[in-house]
Structure formats: C-alpha cells, structure tokens
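Lab notebook, design round three. We kept the backbone fixed and only want residue identities now. Task for the bench partner: fill in a sequence for the structure below.
Input structure tokens:
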C-alpha cells in the first residue's frame, strides 16, 4: 500500500478470506436460492472483529452493519451463522473452533481490529 493511500480502507472479504467468501456465496446461490444475497459477497468489506474475547471466535462485522436493525439469520453449514439486516449481509458469526481461530488470526494479519 502506498503512503497516503487510505489505510483505513476496509479489506474485501473475497481478498482476505477467499474460501470462506466462496462458501458463503455458494450457500446463497446454490443451497437456498437467495441469489440477491449471494451476489453481494464479492463487494463485502470487513469492518471489525467480534469483541467477545473468545480467542477461537472467528466472527466479524461487515461495513454494512448497523446497530439496532432487525436481523435475519442463516445457518452456515454448521460452522456459524450469517446475519442480514434489511437485505444486506452484515455479520458473519464463526463459532469458536480451529477454523474460527484461523479466521481471526488472518483478519488480524490484515489489519482488522475490534
Ligand atoms: Zn466473538
């Protein structure tokens, strides 16, 4: 990244966690026919890590997240939950697990804070 570039630019989910992004996209487009949610995945940007304090929690907020909005939840293949608000994917919950730990560390390595 060049000096002076917006360092606070939030990283793209598809760049930082490509396999998880693909899993989420496939889930919506192939499994449950929520194509309009699936096509959002390519543009989702990661805002912050979950701050629950659990070291193996891989959950994170997207820049679309807003406080106090109604949430609709989708179970993601036993590894976590996808939350949407007003038709936008806003929060990815990854249950505490080795995968969650890996995701958390990957996000930290990419400058995502909490
Ligand atoms: Zn958490």
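Proposed sequence:
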């Amino acid at each position: 990244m060049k000096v002076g570039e917006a360092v606070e630019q939030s990283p793209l989910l598809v760049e930082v966690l490509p396999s998880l992004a693909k899993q989420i996209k496939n889930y919506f487009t192939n499994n449950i026919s929520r194509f309009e949610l699936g096509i959002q995945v390519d543009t989702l940007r990661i805002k912050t890590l979950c701050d629950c304090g659990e070291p193996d929690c891989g959950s994170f907020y997207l820049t679309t997240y807003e406080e106090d909005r109604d949430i609709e939840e989708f179970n993601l293949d036993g590894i976590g939950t996808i939350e949407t608000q007003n038709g936008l994917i806003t929060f990815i919950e990854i249950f505490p697990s080795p995968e969650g730990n890996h995701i958390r560390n990957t996000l930290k390595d990419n400058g995502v804070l909490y």
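Keep this in mind before ordering anything: The chain has a mean pLDDT of 92.
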